[in-house]
Amino acid sequence: MQAKLTLSIDKNVIERAKHYAQQHQQSVSSLVEAYLDRISAQANKDNELRSPITEHLTGMFAAQDNGQDYKELLADARLEKHL
User: Fold this and answer.
1) What is the mean pLDDT of each successive set of 10 residues along the chain, which is 83 residues long?
2) Model-level pTM?
């Protein structure tokens, strides 16, 4: 179902968008719709992949990550913990 949406956008951006849309044989509305669909789908995908356990683990080794394999980082962390 189609619905109307009013946006306030800088005139220069609108002109560039119209030019781009014309070159790609699309409407500005279809460009905006595709963009909003893509970013909202990505946001939903990101939310689906997150759970409490993955939230806790995400970035666990970020400060120490220098390209090492995660198993090496984990082994180093365990070694430090038990020394």
Assistant:
1) 91 93 92 88 63 61 62 78 71
2) 0.51
